[in-house]
Amino acid sequence: MDYLTLAQAYEKIEATSKRLEMTDMLVELFRNVPESEIEKVVLLTQGKLAPDFAGQELGIAEKLALKAIYEATRVNETDIQKLWLKEGDLGTVAYEAVSRRKQTSLFTDTLSIGMVFDSLVQISSASGSGSQDLKLKLLAKLMHDSSPVEAKYIARTLAGKLRLGIADMTLVDALAITFATKQDRDRVELAYNTCSDLARVAKLLAGKGLSGLSEIELEVGIPLRAMLAERLPGIPEILDKLGGKAAFEYKYDGLRIQAHIKGEGVQLFTRQLEDVTGQFPDLVDILKVAFKGKSGVLEGECVPVDINTGEMLPFQTVSRRRGRKYELTSAVDEFPVMLYLFDCLYLNGKDLTQTPYTNRRKKLISCISEADRVKLAEVLVTSDADEAEAFFQKVIGKGGEGIMAKSLADDSFYKAGSRGWHWIKFKRDYKSEMNDTVDLAVVGGFSGRGKRAGRYGALLMATYNRDEGRFETVTKLGSGFDDDFLAALPELLDPHLVKKPHRLVNSAMQADFWFEPSLVLEVKGAEITLSPTHTCAWELVRKGSGLAIRFPRYTGKVRQDKAPEDATTSEEMLALYNLQAK
Ligand code: ATP
């Protein structure tokens, strides 16, 4: 299949913000893709060259990319540079330069999807001596053979900024409709949640239909998408919901880690499925000793600790270690971590996700010898609300953020990738007026005044409407920013500047700057109110009103572990509003 067909489809998709329209366009596209190319098409459409856990990074130095565009088009270098400074988007620069190309050579190749994909892989993986020349040559060749629209999407893909705004769940819907039926979307989602690889799911569907998905099994080394928790306002409600008895676990505040162990091999993944094995050599060593099985997949929370006092430290300390550029060994000493394990999803060749919590906990106990730096999550199994409340108070007293209640029911399975009532979180914050902190995506910004003149003064924050795949504004955030954070904002936000509200952002408010949703911040507010100026959960409570957070405050936590689509949803916001109303 020609890459041009794909690029033209992207142009159409990019022009809509309606999820159903996007799905239809994707179905039309997938129907025409040969089976042998469906994997590449799905990956390219996600703006990736491999699933997240494979760690195939995209990206190219802008100088090199501009040079390649020049070599391919011979459009005046200064003009190219000017365009770049004005647009800040390699895609637009490539599009313009190729459109202005003086003459088209007779020796251009028609770009196939395979050629583009393979070249992108080669460019992204080239390293060592001579790699710059190779990258330049390969990209210049691609640009040389491209039409303007192809050049635009190739450049954006390579820059890691395809920005089509297609949520994974929209792709799941489209794959189900194309290769099975709409009713089969849950089966397709299950397969995706198990292997975290939509391209693989697509290939099996295209080749063997729905039955092909039975080949997807939990495997050591391939992370599954994390199970998530619901929330309730009180312990009696939680006990009620869970049938009168539950396991209450300590809720640690750190970085969620999924550990895959086979023999001497240990791999660690985050909740975003990023492979962080290299950043936690100490955890790898600890697990090699503590794990007694042959193979296993365990989940836990990695928490920074003060080795002198044994006290848990704030979550941010782990992120400091993660971003560390200098020698890792010093970071390992400076920011030591503990691992608190809370689940066992696979042990010695057996998938345990379809077994109840109690069994998984037993398996976890059986395969781990606790040591200084690795422990099992503290747990209390009870049907007594007072006892659970005392446990909660104990956790809070130790500086914990709350508890996680887990169902003991026969069907309390590990539901990868989904939020459900088998896990219910209960945090200290629920006891204040606005229940819980929320994680919001930055979609706009306002110029600072007074002390903040010349900087961003406030940010327009949004929830994610999962049904529509759009971001809805919920508050204007200006407090809780310290000097360091204000100074860091341009670096965090400027790469995502867009000229008008991003097409996936639904805002009734005017901002001075607009951003493609990317940065997610944790926010605590005083209460949730109805508001005519914010679009969150629009008209779900009252006509002409959305929901807004009053007196929002940044907690100091950048949710690096969350993509914008993982922000608090508008539906969750509505549930929080209803909890508060009670
Ligand atoms: P989400 O509900 O989307 O996960 P979040 O990341 O803000 O939002 P939290 O409110 O922090 O979620 O609660 C869920 C997280 O709590 C889990 O992802 C996990 O990292 C952490 N956690 C800590 N202790 C436990 C535990 N004992 N069992 C399960 N999860 C735990």
Question: Nutshell version of this structure?
Answer:
With 582 residues, the protein is of the alpha+beta class.
Can you walk me through this structure?
With 582 residues, the chain is of the alpha+beta class. It has three domains: 3-159, DNA ligase i, domain 1; 228-430, D-amino Acid Aminotransferase, Chain A, domain 1, CATH 3.30.470; 438-581, OB fold (Dihydrolipoamide Acetyltransferase, E2P) (Beta Barrel). It has 20 helices and 21 strands. The strands form four sheets. Strands 12, 13, 14, 15, 16, 17, 18 and 21 form an eight-stranded mixed beta sheet that branches. Strands 3, 4, 5, 6, 7 and 8 form a six-stranded mixed beta sheet that branches. Strands 1-11-10-2-9 form a five-stranded mixed beta sheet, with helices on one face. The mean pLDDT is 91. Bound molecules: adenosine-5'-triphosphate.
List the helices and strands and how they pair.
Layout (H helix, E strand, L loop, with lengths): L2 H12 L4 H13 L6 H8 L16 H12 L3 H11 L2 H11 L12 H13 L5 H15 L2 H11 L9 H12 L5 H11 L2 H11 L19 E4 L3 H7 L4 E6 L3 E8 L2 E5 L11 H10 L4 E10 L11 H7 L5 H7 L2 E11 L2 E2 L5 H11 L6 E3 L2 E4 L2 H13 L4 E6 L11 E9 L10 E10 L8 E10 L4 E8 L5 H11 L3 E2 L6 E2 L6 E3 L4 E5 L2 E5 L14 E5 L2 E6 L11 H12 L1
Parallel strand pairs: 1-11, 6-8, 14-16
Antiparallel strand pairs: 2-9, 2-10, 3-4, 3-5, 5-6, 6-7, 10-11, 12-13, 12-17, 12-18, 13-14, 15-17, 18-21, 19-20
This protein binds adenosine-5'-triphosphate.
The site of adenosine-5'-triphosphate has 14 residues, from β1 and β2.
